[in-house]
Design goal:
With 231 residues, the chain is α/β, with parallel strands linked by helices. Helices cover 41% and strands 21% of the residues. α2 packs parallel to α3.
């Protein structure tokens, strides 16, 4: 894993040192930045495989860094937030973060998240069976090989995690999956805590594939059970 590069963006020198030490011990190549402007500079130069990004940063906020990086790169982004920043968690997910952790957090849990996020990224075709490279649902077509979604013939722009979620549900049409199951299957880890990541990505995906997002016909909520995709 020595060739796997992780960018850590954190302005607290003690936390940055602890993160760098723990992540480096896992044989990842670590690069760092201490403010938002430097984060963009380092990311563009080093092209990391994953970013651990604090929200509260000097010069440029972590949310703004996330928004810019998501436009330029498809790498996974793990955001770090404080307990008081509830709205920032939601905003961070909506502008492209793949997941978030609330401070204080367990370093062991953070490393587990990092490994899972990288595993999802590094698997070439993780969500489909042979013969399912193109999935068709009436006026929606999902071309997995080309990472492309068409709705009525027009391309739909999805974030990497939105695409993964759609492909997984489409590959298992009609089956209901709980939020915890989706975290395991799509995000790649067992997680029994806050499942907000799933709800936010479902809501954002509905905005892009439903004619009436408030009254979804494709991506259905099954009360008390989870979500499913219908044709």
């Amino acid at each position: 894993m020595a060739e796997t590069k992780i960018l850590i963006v954190e302005d607290d020198p003690n936390l940055l040192a602890a993160l760098k030490y723990s992540v480096s011990k896992e044989n990842y190549n670590v690069v760092t930045a201490v403010d938002g402007a430097e984060a963009l500079e380092v990311a563009r130069k080093e092209q990391p495989d994953l970013v651990i990004l604090d929200i509260m940063l000097p010069k440029l906020s972590g949310l703004e860094v996330c928004r810019i990086l998501r436009k330029e790169m498809t790498i996974p982004i793990l955001m770090l937030t404080a307990k008081s920043e509830e709205i920032d968690k939601v905003v961070g997910l909506e502008i492209g973060a793949d997941d978030y952790m609330t401070k204080p957090f367990s370093m062991r849990e953070l490393l587990a998240r990092v490994r899972a996020m990288l595993r999802r990224t590094q698997m070439t075709r993780p969500l489909i069976a042979p013969g399912q490279e193109v999935l068709k649902f009436n006026d929606m077509e999902i071309d997995i090989g080309r990472h492309l979604v068409l709705l009525n013939g027009s391309e739909v722009a999805l974030s990497p995690k939105e695409f993964d979620l759609l492909v997984f549900l489409a590959s298992n049409k009609g089956f209901v999956f709980s939020r915890e199951q989706l975290l395991e299957k799509v995000w790649g880890y067992d997680y029994t805590g806050d499942t907000r990541s799933v709800d936010v990505h479902v809501r954002w995906l509905r905005q892009k594939i439903e004619n009436e997002p408030a009254n979804p016909k494709r991506l259905i909520t099954v009360r008390g059970a989870g979500y499913k995709l219908e044709g």
